[in-house]
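Note to self: user wants both folds in one dump. Writing first protein now.
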Amino acid sequence: MFRFYIILLSFFISYSAFSAQLVETIAKIKPSVVGIGVYTPTGKPRNKLQGSGFVVGNGQYVVTNHHVVPEMLDENLLQSLVVFVGSGKAAKVRKATLLDSSKRYDLAILKIEGKPLPAMQLADEPLYPEGSYVAFTGFPIGGVLGLYPVTHRGIIANVSPTITPVQNAGNINLAMLKRLRDPYLIYQLDATAYPGNSGSALYDIETGKVIGVINKVFVQQSKEGVISNPSGITYAIPVKHVIELLTKHKIKY
């Protein structure tokens, strides 16, 4: 019985230390978390949040998903690609330009106007092992509740080829068949992400270093059910593909 209490006490001490570390890490990385969207001067609303992103390099570059960046902007409405900085009522809008993107790895690099922002550090390891404790911070349901970053945590449940499971053969499309020929490894997480989390940095809880980029969730029934009935299965692109894109443009990270 005494040994049981010792084990229980050790568990609570370890959990408390873990929680304290996460609190510290979130405070450190939150200034680097941004929203990605479109600004329409005459629109109602004028600001539309598309997804999440994070600052890298010299503080003037932002990483997000390729699918988060709008394919086209309406010139007649004077629309512009923007990054939302800060949170709540203090949030500000910064104009951005698309520097480069990769449809294959679902990544995009934006360059933002204005003063440099605090940047996140990128991990050197090509892949983190299964069981690693991780977290991601972003805007899970967009701007519905305002610009307030939300953090989810979990572990790397699996490192597997980028093949999205389907319920039956009828759901397989040409894009999936192409990926089957030349798959790459991605992280599968046990943490729950939502549509607005696309582009969020996946980071090491202890160091705050970016190890990946959230890019999709496994949909059980329909896209509408992602929020009401989440699968709890989330995927992230390893950070080495971000580094490849940054290196291509000689951006120090």
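First done. Writing the second protein, which came from a different request thread.
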Amino acid sequence: MSRILFLIREGFVSLRRNLLIVAGAILAVFISLTLAFGALVVNEILRINTLAWQDGVHVIAFLNDAGENGVPSNAHEALLDDVRSWDEVEVAKYVSKAEAWIEYQELFTGQEELLDIDPTILPASIRVELVDIALHKSVKFRLDQQTQVVRQVTTAADFIEQFQNVSGILNALGLGLAVALGLSAIVLIANTIRLAIYARRDEVAIMKLVGASNWFIRVPFLLEGMIEGVVGAALAVFTVWLLSTSLAQVGEGFALISLDVGRDWFLRWGLLFLAFGAVAGVVGSLLGLSRYLRDAEGTGPDVPAGF
């Protein structure tokens, strides 16, 4: 137990002796993981909103009024039955002019200037939920062919595809930056450990002369690297969480989009990023130590080879 406490104490002593270099290593981890975690949060926001839109109405066909311009009185019912028979369609619902006016009133409650309209100008419509959102173009094309009955066809799928494309680009950029900066963080941690060993080169050389194993020498420096990685990751997670919370509060006024990411998601990914920070610190320490211990084999308390 005393040996373990000694090794832990030595790790913290090394941190205190190299505060400036340690701060640089923590900053490198912080920047890389903040960018990576931020990209994940943006992607999650896009995913949440995409799923919300995919679960709703995908295609709306606004209809010409029956009995006008040669539209048969049963045209709406006939088209609804036809649409429901299509393989691409999961659910098709008819909304009458009266129901459209009720929806309009609910949507613009309290905005008297918008409610002061002739209700009869609101068209009846057929609302379509698809089996697969990717089939929206086929359904839109078929509805557009019903020129006598269908006035206009709108779809939210184009916006969903744009969101998915943006998500893909952000993922690629975030991954590329995270990998590049993550490697930089590991290299900087490795150099930090090598500088820490150089500052204590005589002490380390004497430990080797009296028979200390390489792992006994490694443990304090591995602990130092792990602390640097965990602190940098913790700062990154906290910063992104703080920014995301502020963004969610701003987004509460938006009716069409949600900017809120669940706490469970943050907890799960936050723990993963803390683990990655610890692993990055340990890997960086191993890289720094392996070269030093290899170069220092057979040397005395003088300056080790390789520095």
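Dump finished. Worth passing along: The beta strands are 59-63, 89-95, 125-130, 150-155.
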